[in-house]
Amino acid sequence: MASIKRLGKETLIYGTSTVLARLLNFCLVPFYTYYLLPGDYGVIATTFAVIALLNVVFLFGMDQSYLRFASDAKDKTDVFQHCFYGVLANGVVLSVLLSLFAKPFGNLIGIGAAHSSLIHLAAWVLLLDVLNMIPFTKLRLERRPWYFAGVRTCSIVVNVLCNILFIAYFKKGIASILWANIFASLTSLLLLSPVVWKELLAKRPQFNNTLFKEMLRFAWPFVPSGLASLFVSVIDKPILVHLAGLDQVGIYQANFKIGVFMMLIVSMFDQAWRPFFLAHAKEPDAKQTFARVFTCFFALGSWFLLGLSFLMPPIIQSNIFGNFHLISPAYWSGMNVIPLVLTGYFCYGLYVNFMIGPVLTKKTKILLWITLLGAIVSITTNLTLVPHLGILGAGWAVALSYASMAVALFLFTQKNYTVPYEYKKIAAMALVCVGSALCVKFLRTPTVVLSAKLILLTLYPVWMIGIIQPQLLKKRSN
Fold it and tell me: Is the pLDDT of residue 475 over 60?
């Protein structure tokens, strides 16, 4: 329990920047919906979907390689230099190629050659982002969450302020969003420069061919697996562009962003989880600790899943400041995708828990096949359901693809690194979660529905505590 409490503390610290990032970025959603037309929002959503995919290729899994090799290496500086210079060389080459072929690439992703200037800016965003990743990973490995959170927070504030300044004041349109990301990444790189220069100047760089090959051998499976994993969350935008049009992509993206609240819980946990299980893997009770972590995550995650699914639609439609809404009414037709997106991100959180199997056994190649499975489910579901259900079909694709990945990785982990998960408790919690959702579904009167939601959400933590540690409730009742 002491180890789990430390994990919880570090999760909260990492979460300070993550929550702020997600919340401030979410605050931009209503800003975008009032300043941008759905078609323009569709263009920028498609562009950032492609940036997310290319980010995996630019980084080439070297952040994961640094985590794995630096955790065991005597000379951590050597590992850092190989990772940083490798990412720098790869990023420069790919950025130049992307800029040279900006127009045909714009046509390929569906935004058209007229928006090729966005591709040039995207190349800079990608290069600067990956240069930040290795020093950020170093901070995570050294368990310096306050430094990590401080840099992230400053970067986020710069991003939001630049967005508002460029769009609302200078009227620069959708290119402003990319420029804001460039300035934010430069801010991060400047604040991380002490970490970078300390490692780069600590010793004269010497290329170790054996070490670099080993790092690449460990890292490369994260590229196709990372691409496949991102396909699950971003491939719906290019498909929607061709099947439903840019306007529907904009409506879908505005509501998809609500899922950011569930994703921030997963991101907070993930930032602390991977260094945590690497540090505790050799302890005799490690597997029991991992099992209890999963139980606690399931309880907290399912509560957030219900809460966001229940409350976000009425919050969106309520008047916050007179006629101002959280999202412009022009985008309300896509609210039915919100519970599905939230469910998908919850399943991704389960997937992150099961990551202990391939990482600790060094069988990372399985990630490729599992994420390819998720990508296939996503593409198949999108192509099957979008023509009939519109953007709701894309929401189902997100939920089903992440669920399939979680199940597949669970089966692999239990076969190769068996963890004694508390199955009875998990089943009881899942039953309470589903039962709560069904109770609300069959109610019709709006006032009764809202009251029922609030009562269920208030009682839910009590039920979870009763399932996880019933003795606590018995002590209090006595």
Answer: no
pTM of the model: 0.67
Q: Which two tokens stand for residue 436?
A: 């709560």
Phi, psi for 119 (deg, rounded to 5): -70, -40
Report CA-CA distances (Å) from 187 to 129, 150, 162, 180, 253. 11, 12, 12, 11, 27
Identify the DSSP state of 292: H
Kindly report, residue by residue over 345-389, the tens digit of the pLDDT: 999 999 999 988 888 887 877 887 888 888 889 889 988 998 888
**pLDDT of 407 over the 90 cut:** yes
CA-angle at 324, arms to 319 and 328, nearest 5°: 105
Residue 359, SS3 per DSSP: helix
Q: By percentage, how much of the chain surpasses pLDDT 70?
A: 89
Whether the per-residue pLDDT at 96 is higher than 60: the answer is yes
Residue with tokens 């997963």: 266
Instruction: Give the tokens for residue 139.
Output: 């901070």
Q: Which two tokens stand for residue 188?
A: 């991060």
DSSP string covering 91-102: HHHHHHHHHHTH
Using the predicted structure, report yes or no on whether residue 408 has a pLDDT greater than 90: yes
Tokens at 144, concatenated: 């310096």
Contact 55, 226 (CB under 8 A): no
Helix, strand or coil, per DSSP, at residue 321: strand
pLDDT of 306 above 60: yes
Task: In whole angstroms, give the CA distance from residue 438 to residue 456.
Answer: 11
Mean pLDDT, residues 415-429: 91
Q: Please report which helix (H) or strand (E) contains residue 473, including its range.
A: helix 470-477
Secondary-structure percent of the chain, ordered helix, strand, coil, rounded to 5: 85, 0, 15
For 445, the token pair is: 């009167």
Q: What is the CA radius of gyration of the chain?
A: 23
Distance CA 372, CA 271 (A): 24
The DSSP element (H or E) to which 30 belongs, if any, is helix 2-35
Please give the DSSP secondary-structure letter assigned to residue 282.
T
CA-CA distance, 69 to 134, in Å (whole number)? 13
Taking the C-alpha atoms of residue 310 and residue 440, their distance in angstroms, rounded to an integer, is: 9
* CA dist 91 → 56, 96, 139, 274, 430 (Å): 11, 9, 21, 25, 44
Mean pLDDT (the chain) is 81
Structure-block tokens of residue 353: 């828990």
Burial of residue 406 (number of CB atoms within 10 Å: 0-12, 13-18, 19+): buried
**Hey, how many other C-beta atoms are within 10 angstroms of the C-beta on 386?**
24
